[in-house]
Amino acid sequence: MKRHYRFDILLFASALLFGVGNVPQASEQWQPLQIIDVGNHPWDSSPRFRSKTKTFFKGPNDSSLIYAHFLPRWDMAPPADPLGPHYHHWHEWAYVLDGDFVIHEPVSPQQKSGMLSHFTQGTWLDRPAYTLHGGGWEVGGMRAQNACTLLIFEEGDGSVVTLGPEGDHFKPDFPDQPEPYLPDWQAVQQYNHPWIVHTTTDLEWETDPNAPGRLLKWLSDDQKEGFRARLVKIPPGWEAPPQHKAVYYRQASRFIYLLYGDLTIAQRNEPAEAGTTVQLSRDFFIYQPPYSLFGFADGAATSTGAVWLEVIYAQGLAVGGGRIEIPSHLE
Prior knowledge:
By secondary structure, this protein is mainly beta. It has two domains: 39-199, Jelly Rolls; 204-326, Sandwich (Jelly Rolls), CATH 2.60.120.10. It has helices at 9-18, 199-202, and strands at 34-37, 52-58, 64-70, 86-87, 92-105, 115-120, 123-127, 148-154, 160-162, 169-170, 195-198, 206-207, 215-222, 227-234, 247-248, 253-267, 276-281, 284-288, 306-313, 328-329. Strands 1, 12, 13, 14, 16, 17, 18 and 19 form an eight-stranded antiparallel β-sheet that branches. Strands 2, 3, 5, 6, 7, 8 and 11 form a seven-stranded antiparallel β-sheet that branches. The longest helix is centred in the N-terminal third of the chain and has 10 residues, at 9-18.
């Protein structure tokens, strides 16, 4: 499929000044989209979280995007949680693809059995650094009812700090600290709290003012930290408006995970390319780094309709980047 781009010199010069339609001159600035078929990605040889996992994307700071599948429980014994209450030095988020699971959310380091949160299909978790989670089951309580599959993105190295007399830090110890490095969990001045949204019951779809016919559910939007997450839905036969044909960010990065249906995009590595039509289906993942073009193909973008999870970072792949920029598009 061929596309033609006409760059007017005066328009381009004004774009450089005002940041509208700014197209880098050097082709080496452009980055390709990364497209991963998670369904066909191999399982990890060393799984995480006492589950089956696929670590299908690695980012800076040893960050990981993981597809995790937890088997159902086969008895009524309290679930084993060898970690107990713990926290991380980095932010993480998760989205439940199917099934359910239960986790403790303590508010105090002295608390053994925190509030039981029951995550079901569509539950969104936005967990800041220094947020306590996990715990014991001494008082009984709710158990997961089914198997569970979820996405989880750890912005750090997967390391954990546990509490109590046997508190430890592991996987891995920080390289710039003497061994063994044991953070003083009692010196933490304030523990944070998670943002949990049950998207099927807490939110309703709303129209997207920037794309007629498209619907949104807003999951997180932290303007100071530069972190946004939304669910996006388009109906069968939806056609993208012109400004969505080829979109890019100068500093921001975007994750797209297809939850339902099919999606047809035009993949190009730089503006001068004609582009290749790519058909995506459920459990396909797209990573759009800065100066990477994402656009829908001409005509219908979907035949069945589509729903996807979209996560955007203002800078890098961790919170703290400030306000997210307005995306640019090719003229």
